[in-house]
Amino acid sequence: MIEDVREKVNGLLNKDNSGHGMDHINRVLDLSLKFAEKEDGNKIIVSLIALLHDVDDYKLFGMESANI
Fold first, then answer.
1. Per-residue confidence of the chain (68 residues) as pLDDT tens digits?
2. What is this structure's pTM?
3. CA separation (Å) from 38 to 5, 15, 33, 34, 43?
4. 3-class DSSP state for residue 68?
């Protein structure tokens, strides 16, 4: 499931040049998983949140696509 989400997020952000592309997502994911390990967090939930944290960002996709 996590790899499926990662592929879909990559499809959305692979052409991003604002600093919110997959390099950023992977850094957030790696750091989030380190926190989850230390705090005994649910790694699946943490992974999904990290992977999806920018997919409805109005700065990247416009206000009409944002979930606000």
1. 999 999 999 988 887 666 667 899 999 999 999 999 999 999 999 999 999 988 875 555 555 655 55
2. 0.80
3. 24, 33, 9, 6, 11
4. coil
- Per-residue CA distances from 39 to 2, 28, 35, 51, 52 (Å): 20, 16, 6, 19, 21
Q: Are 28 and 50 in contact (CB under 8 A)?
A: yes
Continuous H helices in the chain? 2-13, 22-39, 43-52, 58-61
Q: Which tokens in the block code for residue 9? A: 């997020």
DSSP state of 64: G
3-state SS, residue 39: helix
Complete domains list, the chain, with CATH: 2-65 (1.10.472.50)
